[in-house]
Amino acid sequence: MTTPMSPAGPGPTALALDAATALVLIDLQNGTLAMPTTRPAAEVLKNGVALAEAFRAHGLPVVLVRVGWSPDGGDLPTLRVDRPGPAAAPPAAFSEIPAELAALGTVIVTKRHWGAFTGTEIDLQLRRRGVRRIVLAGISTSIGVESTARAAWEHSYELVFAEDATADSDPDAHAHSFGKIFPRIGMVSATGEVIAALDALKPRD
């Protein structure tokens, strides 16, 4: 079990949530769940579903973010880079969210970039629901999750990371995000700790 860390220093901080909290799950969709990852995708999905069930049980928003592009690939990133992404849009099934998770979503957001804030309405959906704090997880840690986390922090959202509901294809990248980046912009936690904090929910202030 991981120990939540304060972004202001090395001391542990007890995890406390309130009604201004939402769950945001990144790219838990058929295409990414089929990729090899540091933690088995089935375990990530299982923990993601457990988190979503707990949030819905407490009447809190569950935002499911998926990545996908138009069939003609016209909205794929086109900048020249050393390691380019797909040259053509994957089939629609790549972006489908497993039924057991999709049924729990309050909002589904489709993104075209790594992060969930660029070119989407996620900030509007969260703010109009009074959200100030995000529990974040998904695949992959160093790309979709970290890009979303950095943007959320810059938008002044508090962040909690459920480490055991997050995975990456590169173990070093996963370790860097959780060891070097996430403790500076949020609190590192785990599925069971988040659910326990929900069960001790504080009212919205």
Report on the architecture of this protein.
It is a single chain. The chain is built from seven helices and six strands, in the order βααβαβαβαβαβα. It is of the alpha/beta class. It has helices spanning 30-33, 41-57, 99-102, 122-127, 141-154, 171-185, 191-199, and strands spanning 21-26, 62-67, 107-111, 133-139, 158-167, 187-189. The longest helix has 17 residues, at 41-57. The relative contact order is 0.24. Strands 3-2-1-4-5-6 form a six-stranded parallel β-sheet. It is globular, with a radius of gyration of 16 Å. Helix content is 34%, strand content 18%. Helix 5 packs parallel to helix 6. The model is unreliable at 1-9 (pLDDT under 50).
Topology:
Layout: E1 21-26, H1 30-33, H2 41-57, E2 62-67, H3 99-102, E3 107-111, H4 122-127, E4 133-139, H5 141-154, E5 158-167, H6 171-185, E6 187-189, H7 191-199
Parallel strand pairs: 1-2, 1-4, 2-3, 4-5, 5-6
Strand sequence of the main sheet, in spatial order? Answer: 3-2-1-4-5-6
Q: Sketch the topology as an H/E string, one letter per element.
A: EHHEHEHEHEHEH
What gross morphology would you assign? globular
Distance from first to last alpha carbon: 29 Å
Range of strand content? 15-25%
Number of helices: 7
Largest sheet: 6 strands, parallel
Beta strand count: 6
- Contiguous runs where pLDDT drops below 50 for at least 5 residues: 1-9
Give the integer mean of the pLDDT values.
90
Question: Helicity range of the residues?
Answer: 25-40%
SS-based structural class? alpha/beta
The radius of gyration is: 16 Å
